[in-house]
Every structure is written in C-alpha cells, then in structure tokens.
Write a structure and sequence with these properties.
By secondary structure, the protein is an alpha/beta fold. The chain has 2 domains: 284 residues, Alpha-Beta Complex (Inosine-uridine Nucleoside N-ribohydrolase, Chain A); 100 residues, Immunoglobulins (Immunoglobulin-like). It has 14 helices and 20 strands.
C-alpha cells in the first residue's frame, strides 16, 4: 500500500441527506485508498439548519425529489438531520476497523477520523456568513505546503469551500504575493461536485477562482434515485434487492447495518414523509412512482441512492487515468470540458460535465447511457467484497482485487497504419484464476477508432491502426483483469496510443 505521501488527498463536504449518509458509509470501506483530510457538514438547497432572522422570500418549488414544498424562511430548519449522525457513522467504522485492517494497510484510526470531522456553514442554502470549523479546516489544507492536488468533494452545497477561499482572498489579496498564491491555489485545488446544490459556486468561486476545475460528477441515472431508467444488464442487477440483501446487507458489518435502502424500515431524522424512503409505506405513490414516471417502482431493499459517490469513486486506484484528463473516462464515468460559460468578468469557467457512452444490454441492444453505467456492477461487487471482509477472520478468507500491469507501459507513439503488441500481466491475490480482456474505448478515442482492429492471443494483445489516423490522435485501450472468485473482482489499466 502506498504511503500517504503518494496517495490522493481529499476532503468530503456533504449536506447529510440520506444518500450522503450512504455515501459516507461506502467511502469508509475505501478510506485506506486515499488520504482523507476532512469530513465537513455543509448545507444545500435541500437541507439546512436555519439562522434566526434570516428570511427567504416565500416560494413553492419542486425539488429533485419531485415533492413540492415551501423552502423558506431561512430561520427555520429545512429537512435538517442534525450533525451527530457523522460520529455515529464513525462509531460504526470503529466496530468494523479491526477486521478491515486484516485485509489492507492504510485504514485511518477512528480517532483520527473524529479529529477531522467538522461542522461547516450550515445556516441555509449558500450561507457564507462567517468562518466555521469546517471552512477553517479546508482553508488550512488549501494553504498547506503539500504539493499534491487537493480534491474537494461536494455532496451538498459549495458554500463552505467558498467561505474558505473567500477568507484566503480577504487575507492575501492586498499583499504582493497574491497573484502567485492565487495561481498556486488554482493549480492545487480540484472540486468534484454532485452538481450545483447552492449558488455559492456561481456567485463566489466562479467569480474569484474561475480556473479551479469544477467537475460535475452528476451520474443521477446510474447511481442515484432514478437508476431504474437505465437499461437491463449486470449493472442494474447489482442495484436490485436480491443483490443488495444477499451481498451487501447480509453480513455483520456495522457500516452496512446502517446503510439505507428502499422501504427497509429506516427512519431519517429531520425528514418529513416525502423523505422517509425507508419508513413511509406510501412513499412509492407519494414521491416516486407517478411523479418520476420511471419504468418500475422500488421494492424493499432495492438500492436507494449514492448520488454523491462518483465524486470519490473517480479518486480510487482502479487503474484508469481519469485524474490525468477527465475526458479519458474511468469507473465514475467520462467528462467533457464545458465551453461558453463565463463569469461576470468575461473569464471562461473551468467546468467539466458528464459525457455519454454506449452500453449493450442483455438482449444485445445498444443504448446511450451515462458513462458510469457500464462500471456500476464492478463498483457494487467490490463494495460487497469489502463488506464481507468484516466477516472474514483472515486475509485468506476474503476476496481482493487482482493486480494488472502492461509490460510495455501505458503510453505509446505509433505511426498511422502501424501495429502495436502489448503483453498483460495479471496476478491474483487470492486462490482464484484471473482472466484478462481488452477493448478499444471508442468514446475517448479519435473518430476513426472503430476502424482499428484489436486481436488477443492469451495475454498478448495486438492492435492495428488504420491509415486514416492523423498525427496527434489518440486510441484508448482498456485492459481488464477479473478474478474468478464469488465477487469477480476487477482491476483495469488504460493504455493510450498516440499517432506520430
């Protein structure tokens, strides 16, 4: 396992919605894979604590849950679950921790997690009235001497991050070092966000820090409430009740014991009937079915939602190269740079949004889907394997993802019409066979990618490029190693061929 100095570092910000609580429980099974430097509760347009005297003009709006509710005034709580739940989740992690460390190095101690769990700006939607413990934690990490990229996850509103950046600007903007510091921070910070859930990004971050990448990882139809609309196939099967109940919820893990699914009896603090997905027996008719117009209605123990989880799934070392270029794709999907969006000063914003890919369902039908969809089954099976670690008394009793390398490396320069031969080397960590396959990732490649020919003989792969390829074009190859155990765990490698 890599030392912290080599790990991706990140801070979670979240608004405590039930799917955020699910996302945090899921994340903690992978807390060894990154260096987590903060868990910060914030607000959003869907959840806030309320500030005495703060009033929002009365309005009725239909939110993302399909329920029409009055969202003001700001001096009252709005779907507010409190903040104590974060420590309860860490308490559950502490129960699982002795078993998790038998299977992987690098899991943070529970007391460390408690020390970095803070409350941020929670007053109301977009509230940035004063510094908070959460904004100060973020501010200190932005200003530290660590040269690694700092990935700031946004599961709710951006306001606490915005407050941290605002305080930095207030402190340094009139100093000679300001321009240098501004550029350093712009180069250092990446925001991965489940959309825009408050006005703070547009009103402050985009105005003062337009160059900070804002990656909108909103794969709502793949890993959130409306997943039912996606085509039939393995990914959808791993979100249905049978898989959830038998593979994720069936063990003794305290983290998954608190994990919420449809109609499972869980009651969510601070939520009205429209948000009681587990306990409201009429939830299907009142919120989900008719209003959403989805092709099927949820059943007990169906996957509920982790709409925010793509913000961190793209950070984990699955073998993809997403963090080199978000357009290259990966386990949390593929993204494109949004053009034509500017702040009030005419500066173009560094926004990335989800791109679509193609997926072949069980009947052989090809659909255009959110680009995370083909990998949901991989994510779910890996999640299930880690949940099962809690019941595995030793390393050999659990299942672990295989290792995969490409002998010749991941980057190659090839002439148009040329041929490239690559050798994949796969090794299982368990007593299971490992198979290797590869495919051309056409959506991330040049337009002629469909003309390239990929051949496999054992673990040797040869790709023939068309003569129509142009200098500078790229062809992306995705290698996949899959173990033969119960969970069929995977690891990937992404090879890029560039035309000379």
């Amino acid at each position: 396992m890599n030392s912290n100095a080599k790990k991706i570092r990140t801070i979670i910000t979240q608004d405590a919605e039930v799917d955020d609580q699910n996302s945090l429980r899921h994340f903690l099974f992978y807390a060894n894979e990154v260096e987590l430097q903060g868990i910060v509760q914030t607000s959003s347009k869907f959840h806030w604590q309320g500030v005495p005297g703060a009033v929002k003009p009365a309005n009725i709006r239909e939110d993302d849950f399909g329920s029409s509710e009055q969202s003001g005034p700001y001096d009252e709580p709005y779907r507010w679950p409190g903040t104590e739940w974060m420590m309860r989740v860490i308490d559950d992690y502490e129960k699982d921790y002795p078993q998790l460390i038998k299977h992987a190095d690098g899991y943070p101690a529970p007391d460390y997690l408690r020390s970095i769990t803070k409350v941020g700006n929670i007053g109301y939607e977009g509230e940035m009235e004063a510094p908070t413990e959460g904004s100060e934690l973020i501010r200190s990490r932005i200003l530290d001497e660590d040269d690694r990229t700092l990935y700031l996850q946004v599961w709710g509103g951006t306001n606490t991050i915005a407050r941290a950046l605002m305080d930095i600007e207030k402190e340094y903007r009139d100093t000679p070092a300001w321009q240098t510091l501004h550029q350093k921070i712009t180069d250092k910070v990446v925001i991965t966000a489940c959309g825009e859930q408050d006005p703070a990004y547009r009103q402050y971050v985009a105005e003062s820090w337009p160059g900070i990448p804002f990656v909108k990882t909103l794969q709502m139809r793949s890993y959130a409430y409306p997943w039912f609309v996606m085509p039939e196939g393995e990914s959808k099967d791993t979100l249905r009740a049978e898989f959830m109940r038998t593979e994720i919820l069936n063990g003794s893990s305290a983290l998954t014991d608190g994990y919420c699914t449809w109609l499972d009896g869980h009651v969510y603090e601070g939520e009205g009937p429209a948000g009681q997905f587990g306990a409201n027996p009429n939830i299907v008719n009142e919120w989900f079915g008719a209003k959403m117009g989805l092709p099927e209605q949820p059943k007990k123990y169906d996957f509920l939602s982790e709409g925010d989880s793509p913000t961190y799934i793209l950070l984990f070392p699955w073998g993809f190269r997403t963090l080199e270029n978000f357009a290259w794709g990966g386990m949390a999907g593929r993204y494109h740079k949004v053009t034509g969006q500017f702040n009030s000063k005419g500066e173009e914003l560094n926004i990335w949004d989800v791109s679509l890919d193609h997926y072949t369902d069980l009947a052989g039908q090809v659909s255009e889907v959110e680009s995370m969809w083909p990998y949901v089954a991989d994510v779910q099976r890996d999640f299930a394997a880690r949940a099962a670690w809690v019941d595995a008394e030793s390393f050999s009793d659990g299942e672990h993802a295989p290792a995969l390398t490409v002998q010749e490396g991941l980057d190659h320069i090839i002439e148009a019409g040329g041929e490239c031969t690559l050798h994949a080397c796969a090794a299982g960590k368990d007593q299971t066979d490992v198979t290797v396959t590869a495919r051309i990732y056409t959506e991330a490649s040049a337009s002629w990618a469909a003309e390239a020919v990929l051949r496999q003989e054992g673990n040797t792969f040869t790709v023939k490029l068309p003569v129509s390829a142009s200098s500078g074009d790229q062809l992306h190859l995705i290698f996949k190693a899959q173990a033969g155990g119960h969970h069929r765990l995977v690891h990937y490698q992404q090879v890029i061929l560039t035309i000379k």
